[in-house]
Design a protein that fits this description.
This protein is α/β, with parallel strands linked by helices and about 375 residues long. The chain is built from twelve helices and five strands. It has helices at about 45-50, 70-85, 95-115, 125-160, 165-175, 180-205, 210-250, 255-260, 265-300, 305-315, 320-345, 350-385; strands spanning about 5-10, 15-20, 25-35, 55-70, 90-95. Strands 1-2-3-4-5 form a five-stranded mixed sheet, covered by helices on one side.
Length: about 375
């Protein structure tokens, strides 16, 4: 560096002035307006001087600053990093007190990021399995606790002590009921058509195409009506519940309810759970009817089966036990969808990305639990001979 005591690098909005105090001490004086647009590269020569060695102390002075933002803090952090590399002392006491406070905040944030960073040593397979097992156990315990709180809220409803708005229940009933009819109708008719086609191919080998009516009726009543309605509602209504409650979590509305003395389980979760308990059996019944109608359309028009015989076979298969089994599954699936959506929504972080993650997780968890519950139903019903 030349022997001159001052070097100035300026920009339209702010500049840094370098003064040499003595042979081993320099002062960096910031002046002007350091806002977005200030030429941060203008301090490259100062950083290079510090890294070149021979500097014992760097004094940062901001008495001539008019305003600043994160641009200036980034420059100071570059100078600080250069001082650490060359073992020079950095003195920031001549900066405004507000700027020193911001620097302390950024330092604390940097420390938290460093703590949260992954370990440098490679993680073994056993550690990964153990960590995954620990997360699964924690998730199961949280879900069980949430189910217990929902059960208490439902009991308060049964004894007339639950506090929620009837208008909320009516709105959720409409959204999860009438507004879901078109998509449920489309999927149910297509499922009935598929079952009839698959059954016709197999039964034709034995000359008993008429039993397509039995296949479609039993499959829709016992299994497909409830499970397909559950999957549709998990992707439609369960995701909506998670998004709604996740957005409320971001806006701190759930915290405001707790502060005001309202239990979120009763005020938010209970109406949604009651709505799906009521609407899922009705939607399942609707899906059963349309699925059987779709199978009849194939049986009568394409297979050429007589309408009267097809209807008689369908009636023989529509037993009360098959009917009640399907409706029971639908009610259980409704509870699963409501609890999964509400739990993930209330667990959401306070950002837009977290709401999206919660919504996706709610759909995945609901579908997995629906399939698991259907398998449990199959085992229990087989043991009972139903």
């Amino acid at each position: 560096m030349p022997d001159s005591t001052t070097r100035q690098t300026s920009s339209p909005k702010g500049y840094a002035r370098l003064e040499r105090i003595d042979a081993r001490r320099i002062a960096v004086i910031f002046a002007g307006s350091w806002r977005i647009g200030a030429q941060v590269s203008s301090t490259d020569d100062i950083v290079a001087l510090i890294r070149g060695g021979g500097i014992a102390e760097v004094v940062v002075d901001g008495k001539d600053l008019s305003e600043w933002d994160s641009t200036l803090m980034m420059v100071i952090r570059r100078i600080e990093a250069a001082c650490k590399e060359s073992a020079a002392r950095l003195d920031c006491e001549r900066l405004p007190s507000a700027l020193r406070g911001l620097l302390r905040l950024t330092e604390e944030h940097a420390e938290s990021i460093e703590i949260a960073s992954p370990p440098s040593e490679p993680v073994t397979l056993a550690e990964r399995v153990g960590d995954a097992t620990h997360r699964v156990i924690d998730a199961c315990s949280v879900f069980i606790e949430f189910v217990g709180e929902a059960t208490i809220a439902f009991w308060h409803f049964c004894i007339g002590r639950a506090r929620f708005r009837g208008s909320d229940l009516g709105l959720v009933l409409q959204q999860s009921g009438a507004q879901a009819l078109p998509i449920v109708a489309l999927i149910s008719v297509l499922i009935g058509l598929i079952l009839a086609f698959v059954g016709a191919i197999q039964f034709r080998q034995f000359g008993v195409e008429l039993y397509v009516a039995n296949l479609v009726a039993i499959a829709m009543l016992r299994e497909m009506g409830a499970i397909m309605t559950g999957i549709i509602m998990a992707g439609r209504t369960g995701a909506a519940f998670a998004a709604e409650l996740g957005t409320m979590q971001v806006n701190e509305e759930i915290d405001a309810l707790r502060t005001s003395g309202f239990d979120p389980m009763e005020f938010l979760v209970l109406p949604r759970m009651l709505a799906l308990i009521v609407m899922m059996p009705l939607l399942c019944l609707y899906a059963d009817a349309l699925g059987i109608a779709g199978g009849a359309l194939i049986g009568v028009t394409i297979l050429g089966l007589p309408w009267v015989e097809y209807w008689n076979q369908t009636q023989n298969a529509m037993t009360m036990s098959n009917f009640l089994i399907g409706l029971s599954k639908a009610s259980v699936f409704g509870v699963i969808i409501a609890l999964s959506g509400c739990l993930k929504g209330m667990q959401s972080g306070r950002s837009a990305a977290a709401v999206g993650i919660a919504t996706t997780s709610a759909v995945v968890v609901a579908i997995v639990l629906i399939v698991a519950a259907d398998g449990l139903f199959a085992v229990v019903l087989n043991m009972l001979g139903l």
